[in-house]
Design brief:
This protein is mainly alpha-helical. It is 55% helix and 11% strand.
Length: 96
């Protein structure tokens, strides 16, 4: 008896694995609303920081009409330090 997985089933399993990885990333990252509350800034300000590249590692997930930003916790900490030091957003360099 042949116990190999059919190609179509392997494709589905690969897609499910990719979705699970993506969901894991999203769970560990913050929404714009959450980041705004943590940083004491408006939602609009945090969204603009993401749009201008001032939040390295921030990424959009599909969903609403224009996608929704997610901000890694490490980026949030860097933004917190930058805002504490300068009082305003600044373009941060991605961690190397």
């Amino acid at each position: 008896m042949d116990t190999s997985v059919p190609v179509w089933a392997k494709d589905i399993l690969d897609k499910l694995s990719a979705i699970e990885m993506r969901l894991g990333m999203v769970k560990n990252d913050m929404t714009v609303d959450q980041a705004a509350a943590e940083l004491g800034r408006s939602i609009w300000t945090i969204r603009q920081m993401c749009n201008r590249g001032e939040a390295p590692g921030a990424y959009k997930i599909e969903g609403r009409s224009h996608g929704e930003w997610r901000i890694p916790l490490s980026t949030l900490e860097a933004l917190r330090e930058a805002l504490k030091t300068t009082g305003k957003p600044q373009r941060l360099r991605p961690a190397s």
